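Structure tokens please, single chain.
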Amino acid sequence: MDADVIQKQALAVDPPDEYFDPDLQPETGEQYLQKVIYERKHCPAVVVAKSSPKRRHNHLQQEIRSLTGSGAIPMDLVKNVAPRTLMPTKEWESIQNKKFAELRDTITGYRNGAHYQENLQKTHIYLNFENRKQLRDYCAKNQPFVRILLSIPQRNLEVLLEYLNEWLQEERSEEVSVEERIYRKDWITQWVYAILACIITPLEPYVHSVLRDIAKMCIAMRNDLGAEDELKVLPLNLLICIISKNFNQLDLGDNAEG
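Here you go.
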């Protein structure tokens, strides 16, 4: 990747001076970028993220709802009953995992590049993670470009993964045809794949739990398909494959070694 991938600079922003107050809420685009510059300069080399009690509680509530039959399916009881024609081969999985590993290596290499921070400052996009509906509308209408995901802090990528997991469950629970459901969930699977390519490992245990839920939901959605739905199943197989092989969830894989 080069600077063109991240996007050319649209305007010059003066760095924050000695009178800059980082606690003030930005009111203009320039103030927001100055706050980004300030936070980046004061960010420690190593950060240990604390797990949010609210998010842990929300995730626990999801598990309770799944076990009681309210909303989500009972995730721990998902069994693979899809037609064999919808199951990926070992060769296909190998190709997809190789492509995914190459993508992560490219992104990691770019992160370690000399101009990464400089280019990142040119493409910061403000997303309101407190407004769940607004965030969903944005994701549904926009492609998950690398330049966007790299501008999102790790903790917010983890939050977005939780939201995507919830939205995927909502799509399956709605009273629509299987064909419409598969079409509507495509933007969700695209965002999940892109986040997995950009997220920094190792991950906290609760994030692995979210990834397990996503993979299980993909298995459940695949169970809804018929033998003729080979094209519709591809994004589901891709996430199952990537999560199981690259994020230590081998028991969920379709071709797990015995």
